[in-house]
Amino acid sequence: xxxxxxxxxxxxxxxxxxxxxxxxxxxxxxxxxxxxxxxxxxxxxxx
Length: 47
Description:
Layout: E1 15-17, E2 20-23, E3 35-38, E4 43-46
């Protein structure tokens, strides 16, 4: 799993936002495994 986490501490593809790791939710789809949808910010948050 070397290199799975960027310098932000988030998994690849996620961005650090307000002390959370977020990723855009696909228009027709669900959040990636290991994350859940947050209605407040309209993004998937890594758990």
